[in-house]
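This follows on from our talk about sequence and fold. Can you supply me with one protein entry, sequence and fold together? Could you add the entry underneath, on a fresh line?
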Amino acid sequence: MKNKILPLMLCMVLFFASCQGTPPEETSKIKKGMTKVTILYPNGDGKTFDMDYYSNKHMPMVANLLGDSLKLFTIDKGISGRTPDEPIPYLAIGYLYFDQLSAYQNSFGPNADKIVGDIPNYTNIQPVVQISEVYE
């Protein structure tokens, strides 16, 4: 029995490790009390999203514009709904992390036109934005 469980456990560890989109050294930068800006791109009929542009051009541009106030950004690519056969609710989700709300407000405000103006280059979706405090 032990001979069967050990390989199964190893496979599970490797599977879950490969599912982690953000390296552990990056997630260690996320602390309780930080401000997290979540940008959700809902799925739907006729919705398009260029993940290559978003991850290689838009988000690096945003990071450059926001400067040192941005502590970390991560990107999720939707692959499934609650079950593998359900459609994805969001094509993509972006996360921006700041030490405090004022850091986000002070860095985003002067760059809002450029950041928002780039959206049509990768999607026809009106993003939904939520600002949260990291709790845990």
